[in-house]
Each structure stands twice: as C-alpha cells, then as structure tokens.
Design goal:
Strand content: 5-15%
Structural class: alpha+beta
Number of strands: 7
Strand order of the largest sheet: 2-3-1-6-7
Number of helices: 10
Radius of gyration: 34 Å
Number of domains: 2
Helix content: 55-70%
Largest sheet: 5 strands, mixed
Order of helices and strands: HHHHHHEHHEEHEEEHE
Shape: elongated
Length: 360
C-alpha cells in the first residue's frame, strides 16, 4: 500500500520551506523600505531631490506590498511584486548612478537573494536579463533614461565581478537546495525503515498499531466496524531446524507475498512478530473476516515453497475477532490472540471461531 503519511510529511516540509522564504522576504521588504527612506532623507538634505523621491516611491511601494501580503496572504503576487520592485530599483541605481555615481555598487547584493527567492533557474534567467539591461545602459549612455556614464574599466570590472557573484550564488543555492532534498530523502527513508519489516517489506508492529488506532477512532466516530485476523505459520521452528534459516526466511517472504496478494486494497497486512502476521480489515464484519481467513488458510494449505531443490509445505492457524465483540483495540488483539491459541490447541491449520461449511 502507498504510504500517504510520508507524502503528506514531504508536502508539509516543502510548505514549511516556502513559508520560511516568505518570512525572509517579508523581513527584507520592510528592511529595504526603512533603509530606502533613511537614504532618501539623506539625499534630500544633500539636495539630490530626484534621487530622494525615487527612494521614497520605492519605499512606499515595497512597504505597501508587504502590508498587502500581511493582510491577504497572496504569496505568488507578493513574490513577483517583490522581485519586480527590487529589479527596477537596481536598474534605476545603475542608470542614475545614485549619489556620487556609486549606485551601481548596490547591485552586488542582488544575486544572493534573487537565487534564494526565485531558485536556480529563475535566478539565472533574472540575472541574465538584468546584466543584459545593465550592458545596454553602459553602452548607450545617450538613452533618455540614462543619467550617468561609466568608464570602460569600471564596466569591465563590474560585469566580471557580477558574473562571478552570480555563479557563486547559483552554486551556493543549488548546494543548499540539494542538501535540503537529501535531508528530506533521508527523513523519508528513516520513516519508512521505522515502519517497515526489513525481511517481508510489510508494515511492522509499530506501524500496524498506528493503523489500528486510526481505524478504532473511525469506528467510534462513524460506527464503521472492522475486524482483524491474527495468523501464525504452523510448526515454523521445524522449517528452520529442517531446512535452515535461509529457507525459513524464504517461507516468510513467500507467505507475506501471498498475504498481500490475498488482501483487498483497503486491507492492511503486517508482520506482527516472528512468524505471526496480522491483517486489519476495515468495514468488515466477523462473518466476512472469517470467510477471508478461511480462503487464505486453504490457499496456504495448497501452496508449496520451492527453495534450493527443496519442497516446503506449510499451513497456517488463524484467530479472528471483530471490534463489535470487544471494547477497545487492546481487547480486540487479546481476543484474536486467544482464538489463535485455541486454533493451535485444536490441531492447527484452522480458523477460530470455526468456519462451518455447507454440508458438514
């Protein structure tokens, strides 16, 4: 059965990462707005009125974008608007020179956070577009929106250092994201290992307890009855003693495969411990569970495992119980274990409560 809990946790982890990025963007947005206002005030008192007004407008739009996100929580709009405003600010600083023709220097802070926000592919595309526009500004100072000029040496050094910063930021962001993915994969593998029996690949006892509790909660809430089948491979110790432990492991694996093949999609089969297996049957009455257990018992009775030229025949005993007969999960499991014990006492290779066939 697919493990939906792992997929759910993976999506939750991705959502946490997205929320973390948005929180960082929000903090950067408010910080950028405050910083722009401070520099704008300084420019105003330095009589750079156009530059001051540009910074005030940017601060207002950035602050408004953050406030709208706080109120409406439109993440995609906030992210796109954030990148657009910052890109326009840096292009303005390059085209105008800012104060004392040093505005272009602010561009060095652009690559790290654009990769953090937009990702490797989006970051590369945006950086390529920004560098192309910067080159247009450098090479065509006569354009109406360009108010400053840069000498050739500065242009060469600026483009070279920005390219280096872009590549470095790209590598760091890819490494960060790859490390995050690896940690997520390790967490998923660990969770799978913690819930899966290594030999049979069935859910283990711990995972089955979790499914039983969920099914019991559904029973208490909606009245959906469920049953369990506790089964044991008869005389399994003799299999190990006669054919060896490798043969015993092979029998367990084949038994588990037949068990999974016999179950419905909604059923959950688990290795309960040793040679014991437990099947959880949702929306199943005692009579239906007994019929399923008997069908499986007959199938095992007719099956022969072939291992290294050896033919191993085995049978199974089953104890069946329904939640309608007990008060809780613990009592359900206890009664199924009592029924299994009775099946062993009465000669094994049977289902308890007894299934009486027509004509018998």
């Amino acid at each position: 059965m697919p493990n939906y809990s792992i997929d759910l946790k993976a999506s939750e982890a991705q959502k946490e990462e997205d929320d973390r990025v948005l929180r960082v963007m929000r903090a950067l947005g408010y910080t950028a707005a405050i910083l722009a206002i401070a520099i704008g005030i300084k420019s105003w008192y330095s009589t750079h009125f156009v530059h001051a007004w540009a910074l005030f407008i940017f601060a207002s739009l950035m602050g408004l974008n953050c406030l709208l996100f706080d109120r409406l929580q439109f993440a995609t709009v906030f992210r796109s608007s954030f990148l657009l405003l910052v890109s326009l600010l840096f292009l303005y600083l390059i085209a105008s020179g800012g104060e004392s023709n040093t505005g272009a220097l602010w561009f060095y802070v652009f690559p790290p956070f654009v990769f953090y926000i937009a990702g490797p592919r989006g970051g590369l595309a945006l950086m390529a577009a920004m560098l192309a526009l910067a080159l247009v500004i450098f090479r065509f100072p006569e354009l109406p929106f360009v108010w400053t000029t840069y000498n050739t040496d500065f242009q060469i050094r600026f483009v070279a250092t920005v390219c280096f910063s872009t590549v470095f930021s790209y590598v760091l962001d890819r490494s960060r994201r790859k490390a995050y993915e690896n940690l997520g994969e390790l967490a998923r593998l660990y969770e799978t290992a913690a819930k899966t029996d290594e030999l049979t690949k069935l859910p283990n006892r711990r995972d089955m307890h979790s499914h039983l509790e969920k099914e019991y909660y559904r029973y208490k809430r909606h009245g959906s009855h469920f049953s369990v089948i506790l089964m044991d491979i008869d005389h399994f110790k003799q299999v190990n003693d006669t054919y060896g432990h490798d043969a015993g492991d092979y029998v367990l694996i084949k038994f588990a495969e037949m068990l999974k093949d016999s179950c419905r999609k909604m059923d959950i089969a688990a290795r309960w411990g040793g040679e014991e297996f437990l099947i959880l049957l949702p929306d199943t009455s005692l009579v239906q569970a007994l019929a399923m257990a008997e069908r499986f018992r007959r199938r095992i009775e007719l099956f022969t495992a072939h291992f290294k030229q050896q033919h191993i025949h085995c049978t199974t005993s089953c104890g069946v119980c329904s939640i309608s007969q007990t008060k809780d999960v613990a009592a359900l499991l206890k009664q199924a274990d009592v029924n299994l014990y009775q099946a062993k006492l009465k000669g094994r290779n049977m289902v308890i409560p007894l299934v009486v066939q027509k004509g018998e």
